[in-house]
Amino acid sequence: MSTAVAVALAIPPPGRHGPAKAAGQRDMLSEHGGLRLRLTRIQTALPAGRERGAGPASPQQLQRSVPAVPWDCGDCPTSPPARPAAMAPMGIRLSPLGMAVFCLLGLGVLYHLYSGFLAGRFAFFMLSEPAAGGPETPHGSAPGGAVDLRELLAVSVLAAVRGGEEVKRVREGNVLNAKAKGKTREGAEEQLTTGDLLSNRRMFYLLKGAFPAVQINSEERVDTADQETVPWDRSIPEDIKQKIQPQEVPAESVTVWIDPLDATQEYTEDLRQYVTTMVCVAVNGKPVIGVIHKPFSSYTAWAMVDGGSNVKARSSYNEKTPRIIVSRSHAGKVEQVARQTFGNKTVIISAGGAGYKVLALLDVPEKNQEKADVYIHVTYIKKWDICAGNAVLRALGGHMTTLTGEEISYTGSDGNEGGLIASINMNHKALIEKLPDLEKASHK
Ligand SMILES: Nc1ncnc2c1ncn2[C@@H]1O[C@H](COP(=O)(O)O)[C@@H](OP(=O)(O)O)[C@H]1O
Ligand SMILES: [Mg+2]
Fold it and tell me: Which family does the similarity line name (predicted)?
């Protein structure tokens, strides 16, 4: 198709040639890639022998080139010439060799145009599978367009850092303005501070401005009357560029979860080491990108599933008598159950923040970061609290599941009912089998 069009465009209109070339038959030479091709342009609208311009054609030439005109030529051979076998559109006749060469050229052009494009679409389609139980996205249809996960990672890191600046500024200025925003199901008071709100606003509008077509779920309500423009210069940090390849997914397959201030309770108590800001990117409900940032020590961990990370697992874990890290302000019955399961000697570390507790399982070069082997939570918890940690663990080969071992889907509702257990470089299934009573404990 493109070959025919290219050929048609290459032929100048009648009258643009000199008189010698303005005859009923025009010979054109085309060179491409070292091949010299001979094209013959035929004018069928004028009667034979009365073409525009000078120089009558020889009978041999006419026999080759005037197939459609009724035979009415006294000086010419007595029988009409045979119709040529191969005629291309626009009146171009090609020899069999010319046809073959043009076909090859056309195929070459098509391959060149579409090979890179198809390779890019392949990764796109691979990640286009629908979420379990979610609405089906037909392969290849992307009404919201495509988003590059590497760009999403870059802007997620920036959002966590920029939100963290607000968290730190409010804490250092001692202008928390803490108030109760409600109660948990277990009756614990939930705090809200100016740090939560300002961080939430900054993180949300940075991500929304960069990726308007993507669904963003953030912990705090976004006041549309109080919009902020937080520009993104589209630059990608060097470490991300080196470790991560661009990878496109349909915008509607993505859900971003923002936790603008994890460990708000501890923030109000000035226990700064527990505080993190977090961003998670889920694709079809699966956590794929996780960013956990500590604003008070400027440490950031990021990881992308099947991509890369700037953080790694520790070299060893204690599987037999694991140190269990649990919530200090939403513990439920976790301590009791952990001791029943792993024995009374099991060390239990109480700490604030889901982000902090995931970092406790990793090799984090922070002096204020405790180390643990397993993270267990038995009460209800929200997806923005756990999605980033889940993605980071998954990217590094670890697991975060409900207490019965189910994967947590990061679409739809914002709550996770089944508690959680997180581990890395351990037999996660065996850990779950040891926890027969925890499921009941989570519904105390
Ligand atoms: N039972 C519950 N209900 C609601 N939120 C809970 C919860 N248990 C824990 N969380 C939230 O999960 C995060 C980590 O909890 P914890 O520090 O207790 O481990 C905190 O988030 P925020 O600080 O972002 O509000 C906390 O509020
Ligand atoms: Mg939180």
Answer: Belongs to the inositol monophosphatase superfamily.
